[in-house]
TrEMBL record:
Family annotation (InterPro entries): ACOT13, HotDog_dom_sf, PAAI_dom, Thioestr_dom
UniProt KW keywords: Hydrolase
Thioesterase domain segment(s): 48-123
Gene3D superfamilies assigned: Hotdog Thioesterase
The UniProt record lists the keyword Hydrolase: yes
Keyword Protease on entry: no
Protein's recorded name: Phenylacetic acid degradation-related protein
One Gene Ontology molecular-function label: fatty acyl-CoA hydrolase activity
Coiled-coil intervals, chain numbering: none
Length: 135
């Protein structure tokens, strides 16, 4: 998948509130996809930092994109698990979200996601398992 295909995927499969995150492709490799989460004040909670829910939604979305990329296009899938560790608060600046496939089986895909702040520091790390849905 190229940038155009990833943008089309994001436009076609995401829930409206996830589209509001304005995730955009940053780079693409064989086993990884990096998206940019543009900063916006409305992503912050009362404590002044970007909400954990935003990071989890961005991580989940990035993993769907890298799995779709590996499969040559989107096919139905569902998140089985998403475990996130928040390592540092992010108050401002874009966040770079890189999702990698660690292992792809017949029905399950395992991956990890790094979310880095504008200075390149690791802000959150997630591991995930997806089930591919066959008809």
């Amino acid at each position: 998948m190229d940038d155009t295909a990833i943008r089309a995927l994001l436009d076609s499969i995401l829930a409206p509130w996830v589209k509001e995150l304005r995730l955009a492709p940053e780079s693409i490799a064989d086993d990884a996809v990096t998206l940019r989460l543009p900063y916006s004040d409305h992503l912050r909670h009362a404590g002044g930092v970007i909400c954990g829910q935003v990071f989890m939604a961005a991580a989940d979305t990035a993993m769907v994109v890298v799995i779709s990329h590996a499969l040559g296009g989107f096919q139905p899938m569902t998140t089985v698990s998403l475990n996130t560790t928040f390592m540092r608060p992010v108050k401002t600046g874009d966040v770079v979200v890189t999702a990698r496939i660690q292992r792809r089986g017949r029905n399950l895909v395992f991956g990890d996601i790094e979310l880095r702040d504008a200075q390149g520091e690791l802000a959150a790390h997630a591991t995930t398992t997806y089930a591919l849905i066959t008809k």
